Amino acid sequence: MKRSKRSVNYSKWGYIFIIPFFITYFIFSLIPLLDTIRFSFFEYFRSGMRIIGPNFIGLANYKALLDSDMLRYAGNTMVLWSLGFIPQIIVAMLLAVWFTDKRTKMTGLQFFKVVMYLPNLIMASAFAMMFFALFSTNGPVNSILLDLGWIKEKIDFLGTPFGTRAMIGFMNFLMWFGNTAILLMAAILGINEEIFESAEMDGCSPFQKFTLITLPLIRPILTYTLITSIIGGLQMFDVPQILTNGQGSPNRTSMTLIMFLNSHLKSRNYGMAGALSVYLFIVSGILCYFVYKMLEEKDPTGMMREKAKKNKKKDVTLNEK
């Protein structure tokens, strides 16, 4: 008699182990998301001691937001994000290339990584409070500049739109450039050294190696960094909220979309808050899609192109014969 072999199916255990995640996601993420979308179509707010709604009003909340200052606050958000992200990615890339270059022979690399990452460990609220104290009219920065004789009158750093925006951008830069630099360093160190050695033997300059080898091969990490930064920029709240005391001063030039959303939540206007959340969700998705498509590269090393050229030459040779 032949003994029947009993096969053990382990695939079901994978589904069993991921059930807790899906239960948690369903309760704490999916249901609130769907509820937010539902509230965006209703008139639902508090007037004094009386609660109005929920009354279905269709797209009225979305239209009211377009007629409000939402687009202006969206512009503020993009300006503040750009002031922090552009120097962040430039400095992070320079540090990553410098620290991973074998010719520099730098020692204590782990120490520098820790120092760069330290600002990321400080809470954004504490960071904002520290800068508010340092750069206030009676703060130590003004006192030092007066003692050195570099200025004759105290500077109101937070009294102008440029000063406030520059301060917020500088804080965002300091908090995140270390994290970005470490990500880019890991990506560059993951590139095979033989590729760089072959490029050097072919006479490539350092600039050519960076533009033709390093940048294409770290494209996935650059895409991840840009997408997460865009999402974080659209959710910018704590630094401008604390630095401007929630007013977006001066003249609401530092008011972000999430601060605008928070004002609706404070007034218990859940319908408008839901509609604004949906707008943010749609804009985030569109921006991330375009960034992904722009940075998508199916053949970063050029191997497929070279192979196609060789095959084409072979075909031409055979046809001639």
From TrEMBL:
Source species of the chain: Fundicoccus ignavus
Alphabetized, the UniProt keywords read: Cell membrane, Membrane, Transmembrane, Transmembrane helix, Transport
What is this protein called in UniProt? ABC transporter permease subunit
The UniProt family comment states: Belongs to the binding-protein-dependent transport system permease family.
Q: Which Pfam families match?
A: BPD_transp_1
Q: Which residues cross the membrane?
A: 12-34, 78-99, 111-135, 166-189, 210-231, 270-292
State the compartments where it is located: Cell membrane
The ABC transmembrane type-1 domain covers which part of the protein? Answer: 74-291
* Annotated GO CC locations: plasma membrane
Keyword Transmembrane helix belongs to the record: yes
InterPro entries reported in the protein's UniProt record: ABC_transporter_permease, MetI-like, MetI-like_sf
Query: Which Gene3D superfamilies did the record assign?
Result: MetI-like (1.10.3720.10)
Q: Which GO BP terms, alphabetically?
A: transmembrane transport
What topology does the record note for this protein and the membrane? Multi-pass membrane protein
